[in-house]
Recover the amino acids of this structure.
């Protein structure tokens, strides 16, 4: 029993000694791996402002149609994108109330006609009595006034009946032009008010390429200027001419809307995206150092790039000043010079002074490997 306790004490002491040795050992830091980066040697370049604008094909005329009376929609006869002809039914309101009002007007016309017939017969009879001096002239004048009043009453009721008949006809919304339905702002059962636009129809005919021009460029465009319109989908180029320039700038974007009328018969569908290049506008070219936008790195309020020190193979953060931007390229006006090497990929995972290696594609490495 005593020997067992002694062995237990020795085992516990040995375990404590081992734990102390492990606790006193120094922690060996894992070295940071060397990152492979893509490098671009900076050279002078230029960015040319081509004066090309993105545009959309829109109709020169679009009708916003609405009922001339109010009521409940009971029929919707067209859908968006459907081509309609002039005189075609677009929608229908419930005509019951208007038909009842028309019937009332017809009854009023009949009543007025009966009063007129009675007044006319009395006037003729009193005219004969006056010729025989059986009545006075004043009495004949009263009968004549009754006849004229009955006549005017008939004319009034006839006009009201005609107006009420028109109201019944106005419950049908008819297309006044041929074109394509671009919007339907109503549903079955909806109650719409008079003159509220519920259907929009892009009229058949000429089309415009509509785009926005900044304030500093609108002065170079004038009415009648020729323009090339390129369809993005198939690359086809259409001829056009500037038809309209907005007299004032958009209050939000501060740009001017320009419309180019397309020429020819083979014009793409409405809403097609195109690019417009007005002829005669001077293309400005700006010189400087050109870099891909992937090389840029946001450093607080400033923009920077990672420059490579080829001697130590480390990177350093270098603040730059940006110039013009065109697509995925940007012009650098200061901060770096021709001949500097700049990191163009993985810029957001680098730190100042970090060691890097130049990335080598696998095929290039395989080509440079010695043959066995």
């Amino acid at each position: 029993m005593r020997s067992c306790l002694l062995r237990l004490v020795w085992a516990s002491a040995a375990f404590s000694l081992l734990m102390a040795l492990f606790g006193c050992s120094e922690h060996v830091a894992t070295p940071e791996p060397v990152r492979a980066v893509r490098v671009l040697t900076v050279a002078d370049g230029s960015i040319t402002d081509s004066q090309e604008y993105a545009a959309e094909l829109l109709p020169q005329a679009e009708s916003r149609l609405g009922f001339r009376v109010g009521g409940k929609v009971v029929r919707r006869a067209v859908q968006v994108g459907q081509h309609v002809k002039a005189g075609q039914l677009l929608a229908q309101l419930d005509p019951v109330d208007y038909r009842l009002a028309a019937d009332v007007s017809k009854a009023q016309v009949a009543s007025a006609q009966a009063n007129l017939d009675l007044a006319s017969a009395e006037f003729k009879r009193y005219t004969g009595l006056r010729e025989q001096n059986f009545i006075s002239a004043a009495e004949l004048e009263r009968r004549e006034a009754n006849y004229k009043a009955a006549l005017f009453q008939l004319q009034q009721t006839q006009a009201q009946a005609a107006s009420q008949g028109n109201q019944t006809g106005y419950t049908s919304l008819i297309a006044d032009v041929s074109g394509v339905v671009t919007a339907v702002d109503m549903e079955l059962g909806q109650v719409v008010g008079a003159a509220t636009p519920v259907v929009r129809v892009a009229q058949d005919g000429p089309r415009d390429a509509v785009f926005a021009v900044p304030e500093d460029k609108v002065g170079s465009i004038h009415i009648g200027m020729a323009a090339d319109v390129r369809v993005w989908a198939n690359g086809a180029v259409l001829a056009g001419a500037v038809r309209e320039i907005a007299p004032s700038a958009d209050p939000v974007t501060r740009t001017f809307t320009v419309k180019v009328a397309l020429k020819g018969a083979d014009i793409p569908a409405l809403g097609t995206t195109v690019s417009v290049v007005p002829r005669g506008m001077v293309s400005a070219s700006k010189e400087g150092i050109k870099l891909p936008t992937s090389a840029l790195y946001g450093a607080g309020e400033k923009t920077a790039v990672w420059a490579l020190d080829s001697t130590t193979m480390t990177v350093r953060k270098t603040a730059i000043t940006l110039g013009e931007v065109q697509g995925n390229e940007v012009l650098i006006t200061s901060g770096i010079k021709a001949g500097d090497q700049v990191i163009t990929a993985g810029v957001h995972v680098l730190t100042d002074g970090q060691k890097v290696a130049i990335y080598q594609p696998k095929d290039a490495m395989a080509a440079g490997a010695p043959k066995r």
User: Anything to note?
Assistant: The chain has a mean pLDDT of 83.
